[in-house]
Automatic annotation (TrEMBL):
The protein's name in its UniProt record: Cytochrome c biogenesis protein ResB
Keyword flag Metal-binding: no
InterPro entries: Cyt_c_bgen_Ccs1/CcsB/ResB, ResB-like_domain
Superkingdom of this protein's organism: Bacteria
Length: 595
């Protein structure tokens, strides 16, 4: 009895790919046994002399729907996305794009021509995207039908010469051939093989989940592409800064800035509103992580729809409020000192919390206080007031010498103001930032030395303007503000599901091997049954011989071997029981011969 695997002594086996291809005289003997281990379409060279228009169209379609071209398009899509990450994009930050144009007189026109300031909406990026989409569909549809046909069929019968397969073992037994075949059929079905009788052999196949995973992976890619395109076309994204106690309604006019996809409609905005009840931030007091946030959350009171019931919830970093397709993210935080401005007669012309923008991790902040209406100067003329504001939540003291915060919490708050009067140009019809002041028509208030009038204020202190122009009070109340990003991107759930299925499908296609096993039992010339077992996988792997060895060991126990005729003549004293049973690892040992 002999067992072989890989390159055995009886014959030189063909590899699985060569066997499946059926090239060469020996490989042709495998026939259907080595075919259809994969649903990958076979590529046929075009008949160049007689292609014609239809022939060339067919050739182009075959090339476009080949896996090689699909992978190439996927690579091109990845490369095409690189400029979108390196070059400022109009849809993300128009200000940076304008700055880039001012700084690069030569590159900017080239980038405009190539569409590099709007990569993801450019013609060339869309062309790659659509070609990849068509390629995947054209590749998957025929493979799916082919695989369905394979599932409805039966594993192919055994080739004439099983010795040519990569994993092979044989022995002689006194059991009847029919008995061996029945035992093999029951064993393979128990091991979850699809098995059936095919002539004098049993044919079995296993590992269909590999092709299922392969098809699932590619279908999931299509789902992800559709979800991504759908989300980009119908998405909306806006930012809003809200001070404690103030609210927000999800309407276009409420946003500080807003951008959307090409097919977005204002009516698609999710109807909801919320009020910022409080913001809570705690920080590491000492050590190498001093100032790092421990707690960073805001408490909201929100309602859905026009008459929805109010609910209280907490929004934290990476834990947004979800309302339908919309998500409300907490993205920033700062302080809003409460400032009161009075005119020369003591009348309050402005009192509000003024949000200031942080400049560093310790929330050193700057901004502007603007008094647009209600103020009259000592001469009784209408004027506007402007104050540059610089705020530190933890002042380092005069010994430090700079207005830089030493800690992000409100341990030692100080507000620095410098005063101007005149025309803020707010009525000119030109949009201007609430955090900056146009000084072209503004005049400085002067101190006794003729310098810009400015002062450091503690909470509760007042700065009196020169010449009876009024006063500014830094109130003891200091509010906090939270910055929110409201994102509405339909298709996010489909994209997530597609990515999960893609990972699962890829894992199946990588770790599961599709393989076939044949067991042939025939009566030899001397009347003793000869059992042959062979296995074939889609790709070379030690698992196929190992599995075949395990199956052979179990089947051998049910149909034990007898000595070969040559062995009996050579040693008459050797009893039949002395013949070794097939080692479960015998089928995985290359060129192994067992007496």
């Amino acid at each position: 009895m002999s067992t072989t695997s890989g390159t055995g002594s009886e014959a030189t086996p063909a590899g699985p790919e060569e066997s499946a291809a059926g090239s060469g005289t020996g490989d042709q003997e495998l026939g259907a046994a080595g075919s259809q281990l994969s649903t990958a379409p076979t590529e046929e060279p075009p008949n160049l002399p007689a292609l014609g228009v239809i022939g060339w169209a067919r050739w182009f379609w075959r090339q476009l729907t080949s896996m090689r071209v699909a992978l190439l398009l996927l690579l091109l899509l990845s490369l095409a996305a690189i400029p979108g990450s390196l070059i400022p994009q109009t849809g993300i930050d128009r200000t940076r794009v304008d700055d880039f144009r001012e700084q690069h007189d030569v590159l900017a026109p080239i980038y405009d021509t190539l569409g590099l300031f709007n990569v993801y909406s450019s013609v060339w990026f869309s062309a790659i995207y659509i070609l990849l989409f068509v390629s995947l569909i054209g590749c998957i549809v025929p493979r799916t039908w082919q695989f369905v046909g394979q599932l409805r069929g039966r594993p192919p019968g055994a080739p004439r010469r099983l010795t040519r397969l990569p994993a092979y073992t044989t022995w002689r037994t006194e059991a009847e051939p029919e008995q061996v075949r029945e035992a093999a059929l029951a064993l393979l079905r128990k091991r979850r093989f699809r098995a059936h009788r095919a002539g004098d052999a049993v044919a079995a196949e296993k590992g269909y989940l590999r092709e299922v995973g392969n098809l699932t992976f590619h279908i999931a890619l299509i789902v992800m592409l559709i979800a991504f395109a759908w989300g980009q076309l119908f998405k909306s994204e806006g930012n809003k800064l809200i001070v404690e106690g103030q609210g927000f309604a999800n309407t276009l006019s409420q946003y500080d800035d807003f951008k959307s996809g090409n097919l977005f409609d204002v009516a698609d905005l999710e109807p909801f509103s919320f009020t910022v009840k409080s913001f809570t931030g705690t920080y590491e007091p000492s050590g190498p992580n001093k100032g790092t946030p421990r707690t960073y959350e805001t408490e909201l009171v929100h309602s859905e729809g026009a008459y929805g019931k109010e609910k209280t919830t907490k929004v934290e970093v990476n834990k947004p409020l979800k309302v339908g397709d919309a998500k409300v993210y907490l993205v920033s935080h700062g302080y809003a000192p409460v400032v009161t401005v009075r005119d020369g007669e003591g009348k309050v012309v402005f009192k509000d919390a003024v949000p200031l923008l942080p400049l560093d991790a310790n929330v050193t902040s700057s901004g502007v206080v603007k008094v647009l209406d209600g103020y009259r100067n000592p001469e009784g003329e209408k004027e506007q007031l402007g104050f540059n504001a610089f705020f530190v939540p933890t002042f380092g003291g005069s010994a430090v010498g700079t207005m830089l915060s030493q800690f992000p919490a409100l341990d030692y708050p100080v507000l620095a103001l410098s005063a101007y009067h005149g025309d803020l140009k707010a009525d000119a019809g030109i949009p201007q930032s609430v955090y900056q002041m146009d000084k072209t028509k503004m005049k400085e208030f002067k101190d006794s030395e003729g310098e810009l009038f400015k002062k450091l204020l503690m909470p509760g202190e007042t700065m009196t303007l020169p010449d009876g122009a009024g006063s500014v009070t830094f109130e003891k109340e200091i509010k906090e503000w939270a910055g929110f990003q409201i994102v509405q991107e339909p298709g996010g759930g489909w994209a997530l599901a597609g990515s999960l299925f893609a990972i699962g499908g890829l894992a199946c296609s990588l770790f599961i091997q599709r393989r076939r096993v044949w067991v042939r039992a025939v009566e030899g010339p001397d009347g003793v049954t000869v059992v042959e077992m062979a296995g074939l996988g889609r790709s070379e792997s030690a698992k196929v011989p190992e599995e075949l060895g395990d199956l052979a060991g179990i089947l051998y126990d049910q149909a034990p071997g007898v000595p070969d005729a040559d062995d009996a003549d050579a040693d008459d004293a050797a009893p039949a029981a002395s013949v070794d049973s097939p080692d479960p690892q015998a089928a995985s040992a290359e060129g192994a011969e067992k007496p």
